[in-house]
Amino acid sequence: MRECEHCSGLWLEVAAFERICASREQQSAVLGGAALSPSSQLHANSISEKVRYAPCPQCGQLMNRINFSRCSGVIVDVCKGHGTWFDASELRAIVEFIRAGGLELSRQKEKREIQFEREQLRLEQMAATQRALSRDAFTEETRVGGISAAGALLKFLID
After folding, report:
1. Which residues of 134-147 are buried (b: 16+ CB within 10 A; e: fewer)?
2. Pairs from 47-55 (Cβ < 8 Å, separation ≥ 24)
3. String of b and e for 58-95 (b: at least 16 CB within 10 Å)?
4. Tens digits of per-residue pLDDT, 107-136?
5. Please, are residues 49 and 74 in contact by the beta-carbon 8 Å criterion?
6. Would the pTM of this model clear 0.85, i.e. be above it?
């Protein structure tokens, strides 16, 4: 973990952040030690108004900005291979989100969305199969009808 003295931001490597997300003891340490001063709150609010992409402190590549857990409302900067940058109050907000059950609710929501998408795909596959069967039946009916009509025409011409 690294802290910026200028903006009170934190850099956590992937493993350290995963431990915080999983361990209530480490979450308590974050909540206990991350009390916000009014000046850091003002700084965090002014930063959130301007969207800018920050480089990863380890590799220098621009990090992706993501909404933690897709629904927390906390936008963090992530380098997939190296870690996550948290502006002044973001880590505390994420820990509070996790403690309030937000991570579990997010996972349940994601499972429901996946189940819904699977069901939609299954229904679309069934509809496509039904259309193919109908098209094949129509084609066979048309072919039989065409042969019958051709036979009647030949019979008329020959007689």
Report:
1. eeeeeeeeeeeeee
2. 47/7, 47/87, 47/88, 48/75, 48/87, 53/77, 54/85
3. eeeeebeeeebbeebebebbbbeebbbbbbbbbbbbbb
4. 899 899 999 999 999 999 999 988 887 777
5. no
6. no
In this structure, are residues 76 and 85 in contact, taking their beta carbons and an 8 Å threshold?
yes
Provide Rg for the chain, Cα atoms: 30
d(CA 26, CA 128): 52
